[in-house]
Amino acid sequence: MAYVEWLRVKKTLIVLSIILGALFLIAVVVRISVNNEFGPGRLNSMIGDGATVVSTQAVPGGTRTVYKAKNGDTVTVTDRGAEGITGIVTGPTVDAKRSKNQHVRIGPFSMTASKSEVDFETNGPIDVGMLFAYLTIFGAIVATVLAAPLARENERLEVAWTKPIDRTLYALQLYGVDIVGIVAAMLLMLVACIAAYTLFQIPHLTLTADGALHALVAIVACAAWYAMFAAITSWMKRGFGAFIGIAWPVALFVPGLALIGLGGSVIGLTFHWTFQVISAVDPLAYLNLSSGIPRHNMGLAAIDEPLKLLVLAALALVYAGAGLIEWRRVEA
Amino acid sequence: MPIIMTVDPRSGVPIYLQLIEQIKRSVALGIMAGGEQLPTVKQLALDLTINPNTVARAYRDLERDGVIETSPGRGSFVRGDGAAQTTAQNAGADVARESFENAVREAKSLGLGRGAVREIFAASLDRWLPEGP
Amino acid sequence: MSTISISHLRKAYGPFLAVDDVSIEIPTGTVYGLLGPNGAGKTTTFKCMLGLAACGAGQIAYDGRPLAPSTFERIAYVPERAVLYDHLTVAEHFEMTRRAFKKFDVKRAVELVGQFGVDPAKRARALSKGMKTATMVAIAFAREPDFLILDEPTSGLDPVNQRSVLNLIINEATRGCTILFSSHQIGQVERAAERIAILQKGRLVLEGAVDDLKADRKIVEGILPSDDFSVNGFAADKRIARVDKQGRILRLTVVHEPDEIASQLGATGAQGVRVVDLNLEDIFIGAVAPDTSNAVVVEGAN
């Protein structure tokens, strides 16, 4: 029934696939151009000038090399080729480190500093759920492309509404097809990320419960963002494109404004709370767009995932319902 | 024999009357013989681009007047017993009578007397029907 | 059975009454013409009939039952403005229709657009206005519906294609389809329609069978015996819609039994009594613009 919407989703996915294909080709070019760095002894130059190889021994799947760095550090590197590299650093630099027990993790790359040594790993487990959640913002972009299916139908209600189907069901079909399209687009991007990663190292994919929850939040956030456009535009016959265009900067700006407190003055607090309340209905306000922001500066993005899931799901339902009610009242 | 039928939908004369008039004329003149089949309602409606129910109405009236007969499944035919032609000719006489009456009424309303009308009538006869019984 | 019944339909846009208490009954297999000047409420009537606009009051029934989503399996609608999806090809529109309805003959649709010279591989945005209309018409007719609602189904088409559309309408009517169509081309309505309704400012001003209207509605005119001859008798006659008297010239717009009226006029001693036929256009103009007369009085110059 929602054939036209399927065509639209299909076209969007094809365009996305072409973009992802082009990006993958760029990754291939990068991989080829850095090929030399991936040969045997690829770490020799990285350990630093003047480092000397103390010993080399074969281990299952690779080689273990012990370097003595110029500054006295001992670096034990186990290189398993495409399976990745692990290493242990001990010596004066490590001992001198003030902060101990630090754990830094960016995706599969991790570094753990304890009292006596620093361990690092280039190919740790990748939580697919988490990776999926990182793609939320791109999912939201796809949601924007597919947004406002009901408003689009308003130009052709003479065709849309003379089909043998209940209008609510018809609208739900349009919503459903688009949501499936958004999730499919995110999955495509996920696959592309993993494929590009595989050019460099064989990924160790896992899925934790926490990752799954984050992935779910990501989907619901995109759905809420998509539904928000339905609520804004469903009554419009034309000009809805402008609203969709304006929505992005506004939605990104408002949570930012909510962070401004002007030192707790009355004006500042009023300002803060006004935008805080507006942010509450902005699905993008819940997105953790950068990992570098301190938690207390993240606003709504800092709330726990289960609560986030509930709030975003509620927003999605309310927005989708509002869009539907508006649409049913439109006249051809 | 096939007949040429035309209708003028823009005329003030109802289309079904135009059809009846043309078919009766064809039958009266013997162009359509007894037993000859008429086009189906659908065919005639499509050929003339007119409403099929209008054609059906004309056929119904022609059947009532005894000019054609319709048997379900076979179609409509000009009646074969000669009655059709008589009926059609009588209908022709009716048309002629009406025309005369209109003409005489017109003449009267223009102030012409019996003598003047008779003169016009005689001239008409001489011109259009100079011979015969 | 496929009857359409519109009763006491009313639709207002703010203070403007677009449709005001319109009732029409359309029997099965009837081709019904809806006429009216621009803005008379024809399109609004269609939209109310199809639930595209909410009617303020009144009922619409198809075979005695109100409109439901399933009714659309049996209804095909060609809107006044061809609404196609610009980015889809004609063939994709066929596919959309095939998926939406239980009954749709794709082969027939392809054949029909072919007749109108439309290439199914073309995108809708590349079609001319007439081709768009033809595509909408082809989709509607390839569905073999029980009810056809056509709002200006020939707009933008050349005379040959207009005739093709009329023949499609006639063909569907012989199948027993109930057809309601509007057109500004009175000649088309005169050909294809069995019954008509004329709307004026949202109200139904005339309704009836085309042939009956033509048989009943005539102008009877004559020259009265004297200037001050009383015509009150005619003015009071219910069969006479309008009496125009200019000096001795009398012109009666008769809506019933014109021959009877002509005899009566003759009996008064009036001269030059004649009965003038009216075609649908005259009847239409008489109904929507009663002050427009198709006769002029020529007065001799002094």
Which helices and strands, and how do they pair?
The complex is a heterotrimer of chains A (332), B (133) and C (302).
Chain A: H1 3-33, H2 44-47, E1 52-59, E2 62-68, E3 74-79, E4 85-90, H3 92-96, E5 102-106, E6 109-113, E7 117-121, E8 125-127, H4 128-134, H5 136-146, H6 149-154, H7 157-160, H8 167-198, E9 204-206, H9 209-233, H10 240-258, H11 266-280, H12 305-329
Parallel strand pairs in A: 8-9
Antiparallel strand pairs in A: 1-2, 2-3, 3-4, 4-7, 5-6, 6-7
Helix pairs in contact in A: 1-8, 4-9, 5-8, 5-9, 8-9, 9-12, 10-11
Chain B: H1 15-28, H2 41-48, H3 52-64, E1 68-71, E2 75-78, H4 83-109, H5 114-128
Antiparallel strand pairs in B: 1-2
Helix pairs in contact in B: 1-3, 1-4, 2-3
Chain C: E1 4-13, E2 16-26, E3 31-35, H1 42-49, E4 57-62, E5 75-78, H2 90-100, H3 106-115, H4 129-141, E6 147-151, H5 159-174, E7 178-182, H6 186-192, E8 195-200, E9 203-209, H7 210-216, E10 218-223, H8 232-236, E11 240-246, E12 249-254, H9 258-267, E13 271-277, H10 280-288
Parallel strand pairs in C: 3-7, 3-8, 5-6, 6-7
Antiparallel strand pairs in C: 1-2, 1-4, 8-9, 10-12, 10-13, 11-12
Helix pairs in contact in C: 3-4
Please give a structural write-up.
The complex is a heterotrimer of chains A (332), B (133) and C (302). Helix content of chain A is 55%, strand content 14%. Chain A has 332 residues and is α+β, with helices and mostly antiparallel strands. Chain A has 2 domains: 3-26 and 127-329, no CATH class; 39-122, no CATH class. Chain A has a 7-stranded antiparallel beta sheet. In chain A, a hairpin with a 2-residue loop joins strand 1 (52-59) and strand 2. In chain A, helix 8 packs across helix 9 (209-233). Chain A is elongated. The mean pLDDT of chain A is 87. Chain B is mainly alpha-helical and 133 residues long. Chain B has one domain (1-133): Winged helix-like DNA-binding domain superfamily/Winged helix DNA-binding domain (Arc Repressor Mutant, subunit A), CATH 1.10.10. In chain B, strands 1-2 form a two-stranded antiparallel ribbon. In chain B, strand 1 (68-71) and strand 2 form a beta hairpin. The two termini of chain B are 29 Å apart. In chain B, 29% of the residues are buried. The mean pLDDT of chain B is 86. Chain C is an alpha/beta fold. Chain C folds into 2 domains: 4-209, P-loop containing nucleotide triphosphate hydrolases (Rossmann fold); 218-277, Alpha-Beta Plaits. In chain C, 32% of the residues lie in helices and 28% in strands. Chain C has helices at residues 42-49, 90-100, 106-115, 129-141, 159-174, 186-192, 210-216, 232-236, 258-267, 280-288, and strands spanning 4-13, 16-26, 31-35, 57-62, 75-78, 147-151, 178-182, 195-200, 203-209, 218-223, 240-246, 249-254, 271-277. In chain C, strands 5-6-7-3-8-9 form a 6-stranded mixed beta sheet, sandwiched between helices. In chain C, strands 11-12-10-13 form a 4-stranded antiparallel beta sheet. In chain C, strand 11 and strand 12 (249-254) form a beta hairpin. In chain C, helix 3 runs antiparallel to helix 4. The B-C interface holds B 9-17, 41-42, 45-46, 49-54, 57, 105-106, 109-111 and C 29-31, 163, 166-167, 170-171, 173-174, 187, 190-194, 210-212, 214-215, 218, 222-223, 266, 270-274, 276-282.
